[in-house]
UniProtKB/TrEMBL annotation:
Cofactor dependence: Fe(2+)
Pfam entry (one): Pep_deformylase
Active-site feature positions: 148
Molecular function per GO: metal ion binding; peptide deformylase activity
Stretches of the chain forming a coiled coil according to its record: none
Source organism: Aquimarina muelleri
Upper lineage: Bacteria, Pseudomonadati, Bacteroidota, Flavobacteriia, Flavobacteriales
Keywords: Hydrolase, Iron, Metal-binding, Protein biosynthesis
Protein name per its UniProtKB record: Peptide deformylase
Record-stated family: Belongs to the polypeptide deformylase family.
């Protein structure tokens, strides 16, 4: 089932999310719905707060990035099969040089800005079967994870912009929170009682 994506301005996007247990109700159905919602919106990641749930859960499928001509064959191959669920994730360390990449967000349609992030991460998380993993990622895989991880920490990519950039997009952000935007997918706006 395709769920409405929560728009910028909703308090759930600024909350630090809570951990969940193995017994979280209807988890497999929730994951299925989240993947379907993400694909419908042409996203490469989706975090539970973006569908209104303040829980430490996000998923990624970086396959669309595997088409990028600028990547090496090895990077393309890694991203092609990079589909994962992250539950109760904790980034243990971020290392390497900061590098810039233009990011967007399904909760903030039509705004894309350059964001600096460290190139390598080490992360501990549980998968959809509650098997624990500690893994290291770099490049675009790390970036997609960092972006989604920020969501469960109550951070949006716009929070990482300079004060000048924030001022320049203030009007656009205000319009998004008021529902004054044409989105190609279902959204739920803070100023409205019902989604559309």
């Amino acid at each position: 089932m395709i769920l409405p994506i929560v728009a910028y301005g909703d308090p759930v996007l600024k909350k630090k999310a809570k951990e969940i247990g193995k017994d979280y109700p209807n988890l497999s159905e929730l994951l299925e719905n989240m993947f379907e919602t993400m694909y419908n919106a042409h996203g490469v990641g989706l975090a539970a707060p973006q569908i209104g749930l303040p829980i430490r859960l996000f998923l990624v499928d970086a396959e669309p990035f595997s088409e990028d001509e600028e990547l090496s064959e090895e990077e393309k191959k890694e991203l092609k099969d990079f589909k994962k669920v992250f539950i109760n994730a904790t980034i243990l360390e971020e290392t390497g040089e900061e590098w810039v990449f233009t990011e967007g967000c399904l909760s903030i349609p039509d705004i894309r800005e350059d964001v600096f992030r460290k190139e390598k991460i080490k992360i501990n998380y549980f998968d959809e079967n509650f098997v624990e993993h500690t893994e290291t990622y770099d490049g675009l895989a790390a970036r997609v994870i960092q972006h989604e991880y920020d969501h469960i920490e109550g951070i949006l990519f716009t929070d990482k912009l300079s004060s000048l950039k924030k001022r320049l997009i203030k009007g656009k952000l205000s319009n998004i929170s008021k529902g004054k935007i044409n989105s190609e997918y279902r959204m739920r706006f803070p100023s409205m009682k019902k989604g559309r």
